[in-house]
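During the reporting period the student researcher (J.K.) took over the structure-prediction task from the postdoctoral fellow and processed the backlog of single-chain submissions. One of the processed entries is reproduced below for the supervisory committee.
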Amino acid sequence: MLAFHEEYPLNSGRLAQAPQFSDTIYDIVLAADTLLRVAIPAGARFVSLSFDGDVRVKAGLVDTALTLPAATVTDGSGSALNPGVRRLPAAATHLCLRAATACKGSLEYWG
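J.K. obtained the following C-alpha cells:
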C-alpha cells in the first residue's frame, strides 16, 4: 500500500497538497438505507471517501451500528456526512456506510 505522506522533495510545496493516487481502491455500491460494513485493509492509515450521493460514515468494528439520523443527537454517537479524507483510528477494523438513497463511490486507502 502506498504511503499517504511522501518523502522530500514530494512533501514540500504544492505537491504536499495532493497525494498520489492510491494502489488500494475499493469500488462501493450502496443500496438505499442499507448498512454496509467494509473491512479496512491491513496497513491502511488514511482513507478518502468519494460518492455520487450523501453517505453517512462511522469507523468501528464488524458489529458497529449505524442508522440514519431521525432526530438531533448531541451525545457524540453520530456519524459523519460525506467526510472526505480521514485518518483511520487505530482500533477500527471496519468502515460502516449508509445512504438514504442508492449511490456509488470509492474508498481510496493509503498506509
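The committee noted the following: The beta strands are 24-30, 36-39, 46-51, 56-60, 80-81, 85-87, 94-98, 103-110.
J.K. will present the remaining backlog at the next meeting.
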